[in-house]
């Protein structure tokens, strides 16, 4: 059943706040920034679902939306989003990269990490939102695609762009059973397209198997930080390599395996300590959640990394 939102139905003074609420309820919690130049705000959103995949056509005047580190921490959500630029121009920023989008271009971004969308002109964009576990492409490989411009004029883009735009146009007349099958088809097309794009990128750039494996291992670590038994030995076994080869991979980064695990755990603890919804949780419980179960050890590590004890840091947030 399609849903829609249109600021044209609202008094001018209420439009921007209503849009802020609409984008956060339609997608994931976001913060909108109004246009830089004084003008009457306008935006519309029309959404529908095919299986568990949401397709939303968004249109409006120039503005920006951001998913900040604080918002990610307070309202975690695990989706891939694909922004397909139908008209106007836009920029997708994530992981220090920026994808400049014109009509026919698209980019992928991940709601578990900070991102920003900036529209510099009046625009229309189709946003496809997919639960991350549904897409059978490794997390480390998908991260290499985030905020990269993919043209709809050639290669995999020439398949993906018209397929998704066409699907959006027929969804209103599609019943739920057919929609479920179409959802499976969308996942198959996207998985094949992204795998092909990754393969082409590997052929075009000096990215080596070493770098790809290191990226995959880092994402594996991020997914298992809460496991107190996470160790170089368990990581090596999960990736079918020797522990000594694992250490060599990390030696090139300047941070060893154990140091990387410790660093990522402390970053997660710092994020949770800063989140308002965790204010009732004891500091020790947050440390334990991320594999640091000894309160004294956790406190020493945290102070060494950030200059404050966990309790001192929380009191300043």
UniProtKB/TrEMBL annotation:
Q: Which residues form the HTH araC/xylS-type domain?
A: 215-316
- InterPro entries listed in its UniProt record: AraC-bd_2, AraC_XylS_family_regulators, Homeodomain-like_sf, HTH_AraC, Tscrpt_reg_AraC-type_HTH
Cross-referenced Pfam families, in alphabetical order?
AraC_binding_2, HTH_18
This entry's Gene Ontology molecular function terms read:
DNA-binding transcription factor activity; sequence-specific DNA binding
Q: Does the keyword Transcription regulation apply?
A: yes
- Keyword list, A-Z: DNA-binding, Transcription, Transcription regulation
Q: Does the keyword Manganese apply?
A: no
Gene3D superfamilies given in the database record: Homeodomain-like
Protein name, UniProt field: Helix-turn-helix domain-containing protein
Please tell me the species this chain comes from: Halostreptopolyspora alba
